[in-house]
Amino acid sequence: LLLSVFYSLNSPGLTDEFEDHLDAWMDCIHKLVTLPNPAVAAPQQDEDEEAPVDACKAMACECLSLFMERNEEEFAKFLETFVESVWKQLVEVGQGVGQDRLAMAAIAFLTTVAKSVHYTLFQGEEILKQVCQGVIIPNIRLREGDIELFEMNWVEYVRRDAEGSDSETRRRAASELVKALVDKFPGETTQLFSGYVGSLLTEAGGDPAGKWQAKDAAVYLVTALAAKTKTSSAGATTTNELVNLAEFYTNHVAPELESATASSEDRAVI
Prior knowledge:
Blueprint: H1 2-10, H2 16-20, H3 22-33, H4 38-41, H5 52-70, H6 72-92, H7 100-115, H8 125-140, H9 144-152, H10 154-163, H11 170-184, H12 186-206, H13 212-226, E1 227-231, E2 235-239, H14 245-258
Antiparallel strand pairs: 1-2
């Protein structure tokens, strides 16, 4: 509640009162971001319910994104510390629905940083590898809830995905981070992430019936890499020329659509 009030008070802009005591406020928010999470050692019984500590951390991340967007100059000296802390929290987040808000808020903060003049914090092959392995891949994979949503109303599932109205999902948040990195490091990001696409396709190829989710993740990652700008009505309006979409479609998408198993219940999502 206090963080929500803090967010609301600073939404119009940084007041003199907050600016004069910014160090103290940032120290407090950093302590909240790095609060020990009991769920790491002892997972909750109900993974669909948001724990109070996760709600607190998520709101703290939202406050950090606000400062990056509205008060970047004043926030700059704290940035590296918070990026490291938020990253550490993010890689510990589980796949339960109860941690969705925390995952999305943390990814959104990293995306805001990647889009800013401080994007060099993500520069380097090793850092990009960690981002892909620790953030992108885990959050673009389908979960049981995603499959259930598709089974209940596949038309709505496809519509939300095509129009981008699924903005409040981990997959969409991870996709936006990929796009931000492609914009700043087009060659390095495309080449490195394409390697992970190949790994996912290899995983799926080894057991097509049991590992089809890996292929779905590969297709989603290619989409994120390829679409630089898009609109809800026209789809992708600018594409990443470093991604060979025609080849990927011919080799991996068309065979799936033409396959006799394409309409089977367990592969319908692809």
